[in-house]
Fold each of these.
Amino acid sequence: MIEPTDEFQHRSVRTSLYFPTSKLFIAGNRKAAGTAVRWWLLPAHGVDVEAVTHGVVGRELAGTEAVWAGGAPLRYLWRCLSDEERKEALAAPDVLRIAFVRHPISRVFSTWSQKYLQREPGFNDGLPASFPKPPESVDSSDQIRDMFTEFALSLSRWHGSWLKLDGHLYPQNLVLGHLLPDAATILHVEQMADAVTLIVDHLERFGVSPGPLPRLNEAIVGYDTRLVSAEAAASLARLYRDDLKVFSYDAEPPPSPARDINLDWLNDIRRRNERWAIARQELIALRRQLRNVRPGNARVEVDSVRRRSRELGLAHDRMRASRSWRLTAPLRKIEDWVRASRQARAR
């Protein structure tokens, strides 16, 4: 049985998936296509993810992220499996055991872009005080490149003190080393098409049709080698040298297509995330308060907390109906159209 040795290994276990009917085990590893793979495989095995994650804290920020939420009772996640199913997942000879990994440089960039740069609620607050604080606005791609370099150099100062950082930045070999037996299959996200083919072939042997290929999450500022300075790349290669060695990656940044950056959209998202972070923290505190109400005055406290929760929900709805959100809607549609066109040409 798995015995996690730290909080990030515990998260890896918690977010692992096992499907007894198709004998497929997917090890949990943040920022390595985990969300896309889960939203692809869970419905194929009969889980209505939309319905199950409705109302989970975090869904207001990004619906797909709800697959990671502790409050979502998603069947086939590790915490929902029986002891017998867990033993089978790790030991049965006919189980396909998979761990998705990603080049450390693009993995750190993705974490930085989607969380730090976009001011995702809760992420920056968890970093040590020595990390640089993101500016109020982002004005150019050169500024983004310099910001990532500064972040990478700050990250390098925490080598050996990983537990003080976020799990998305934790070395993949440490996350996965305890979780997978020697017979496990390591799949590189960079070769996602080959990885998907392997999984589809396995599922079809058990009569499971997984449907369309998963679409990887796309950030407003996606990974682009032009935004990774030589200084940042060298620093991260030294910091994650064990990941590079264990998973057979080159030290150079992996290639990427050139990407356009919509700065107006980025700054709009950053402002909304900053506002939502305040409401989100209050909502979490209120729900905690609701669980701990005093019996003698329970009705008054419950009504007060529920009323404030409704107010926060309405505030979030107003934010999505705001003028800035409506004005940037055409930009988002154009961005989606451009990405779809690029994907079609690539195929």
Amino acid sequence: MTMLSLVTASLLSSCLFESGPRLMGNVAMVRGQVYLARTHLMHPELVTQAYPLYVDDTLESQSQSGIQFSVHPSTRLYLGPNSRLAIHDSSDSGQAVLALDRGTLRIAIIPQEDQVFAVHILAGGSRVTMQEGEATVWVLEERNEPATPGPYVTTIQNVGVINHGTRGEVAFNGMDQTVVVRPGFLSVTAPNTPPVQAVAIDAAKPFATYIMQTTDLERHPNETTAITDPLKPSKPVVTVTAEPIAQRDCKKKRAKIHRSKPGTEKAPASETECG
């Protein structure tokens, strides 16, 4: 009876283990605050390094935060700030399906010998597929003020992919149309719109540079850049020069003297005196 109980317990434990969520990868690096939501967790928990990732896990990064992780030995993935990504399973062990709800995701795939691995990114109704190289996918949102009092409504402004690697093509599919994005090119689409033909990165260099930098976890966390629509001409940059503190103090001093002696004319202070 004891032996039978042990065998039964062993079989039950094995069945439960096999029926549990499949391990998909691991976290390699974290910057700032990144949270993970899992089916059996009551609340999202803060991610730490060397953290296992399972099917149906969701990663969400806060402002000035990011995370590096993998879903296969040949992959490296970088989630940028203010981003949310869900890890989905696939019927084929030779591929992974990820869903990017918002933000940026960089994918780097180095093919292993005699092994092909594909990563599919579902983003805003589109699908990005790649097997080798390096590319960044983005989902840019915008907040719309409601006509009646209430919370803001967030909608997707555009979705796109930048192939900034040196090898490998990226398939960008939307509205049953596929655009091939070669190294050095990018493509973009809006909701319910097929992707545009790929254009050179230099045609939207400021935007492309910003997108790629968001997933660079080594950058200073306080560096931020305004983001604009890559299909619209960017607004001119307005430079504001701050007035030197010494010069401000000098002006205040002259104003005080003028108020105390309104009938007295005083020669203006020299530039050297004002700094």
